[in-house]
């Protein structure tokens, strides 16, 4: 990725998060947002990003400094305990599965990839929401098995159920295909074919295929909003973000669509914005929204070294 596009990709997710934060958990149809707002659900000032971006920034920092999984957990802990990677040094939101994993690491001393909850009832979107930068690192990795291994390990830090792992596979493999020239429609076809074949060697993951299968169609963008659930359940979040990505003609439109779905608006907007930034690589994130983000000093400090390290030279 060129430096400008890589920067847009990262900022798109953060802008989507901040846009969705004030309306998180609201019921669909009871409100409408078309601009960046503040206060609302978490009573944070306009431009505040949440756990999605904080844990994504922790990953960015870790990838820039060649940290291992244990190092990444140190950063997650710094977020949860001391508000690192946040706009105002304040942690106002963390998912219970992510918090549980961080406690598993530091209280129970588990190995990093054993910290995630493997329960079927721990299939929230807390891994999906923080993995976009991995697509940058994996863009040039030609071996599917290697990409899946890395994706699974990063997912397992917080979420170990095969349904959450499959969600990460689908998202990152679609980004991979698109970064290597596929359209969204082509990516969905290619990824469905390659994963359904490869996962014969991982029957526990393949067994989860039917949960995602209905969404894996290029025509999802034509579905009515009533067919889209927007909860924090990883399958719902994946489907909702894909629907926004397929339907939107711009990053701006994807964010507005996602933020008005109700439910887990910040995470769906984060993922939809990241995905749309890859779908429309020549588009910029709405400049006024990016400008409204808080703490540009911190964002620059973390994002610019990552861009320098991973952008095409
Ligand atoms: Mg959040």
Automatic annotation (TrEMBL):
Chaperone: present as a keyword of the record? Answer: no
Alphabetized, the UniProt keywords read: Hydrolase
InterPro entries according to UniProt: ADP-ribosylglycohydrolase, Ribosyl_crysJ1, Ribosyl_crysJ1_sf
Which family does the entry's similarity section mention?
A: Belongs to the ADP-ribosylglycohydrolase family.
Report the PANTHER family cross-referenced here: ADP-RIBOSYLGLYCOHYDROLASE, ADP-RIBOSYLHYDROLASE ARH3
* Name of the protein described by the UniProt record: ADP-ribosylglycohydrolase family protein
Per the UniProt entry, what species is this protein from, by scientific name?
Lactiplantibacillus dongliensis
């Amino acid at each position: 990725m060129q430096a400008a596009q890589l920067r847009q990709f990262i900022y798109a997710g953060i802008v989507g998060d901040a846009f969705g934060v004030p309306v998180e958990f609201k019921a669909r149809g009871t409100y409408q947002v078309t601009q960046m707002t503040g206060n609302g659900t978490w009573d944070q000032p306009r431009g505040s990003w949440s756990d999605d971006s904080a844990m994504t920034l922790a990953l960015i920092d870790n990838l820039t400094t060649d940290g291992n999984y244990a190092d990444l957990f140190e950063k997650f802990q710094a977020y949860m305990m001391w508000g690192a990677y946040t706009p105002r040094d304040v942690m106002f939101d963390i998912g219970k599965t992510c918090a549980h994993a961080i406690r598993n690491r530091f209280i129970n001393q588990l190995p990093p990839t054993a910290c995630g909850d493997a329960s079927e009832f721990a299939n929230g979107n807390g891994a999906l929401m923080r993995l976009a930068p991995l697509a940058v690192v994996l863009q040039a990795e030609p071996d599917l098995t290697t990409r899946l291994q890395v994706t699974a390990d990063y997912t397992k830090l917080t979420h170990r159920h095969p349904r959450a792992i499959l969600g990460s596979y689908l998202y990152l493999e679609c980004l991979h295909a698109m970064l290597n020239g596929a359209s969204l429609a082509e990516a969905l076809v290619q990824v469905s074919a390659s994963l359904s074949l490869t996962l014969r060697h991982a029957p526990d993951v393949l067994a989860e295929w039917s949960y995602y299968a209905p969404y894996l169609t290029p025509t999802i963008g034509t579905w009515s909003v009533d067919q889209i659930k927007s909860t924090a359940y990883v399958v719902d979040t994946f489907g909702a973000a894909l629907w926004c990505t397929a339907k939107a003609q711009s990053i701006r439109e994807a964010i507005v669509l996602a933020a008005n779905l109700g439910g887990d608006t910040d995470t769906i907007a984060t993922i939809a914005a990241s995905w749309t930034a890859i779908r429309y690589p020549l588009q910029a994130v709405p400049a006024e929204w990016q400008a409204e983000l808080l703490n540009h000093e911190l964002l620059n400090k973390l994002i610019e070294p990552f861009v320098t390290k991973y952008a095409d030279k």
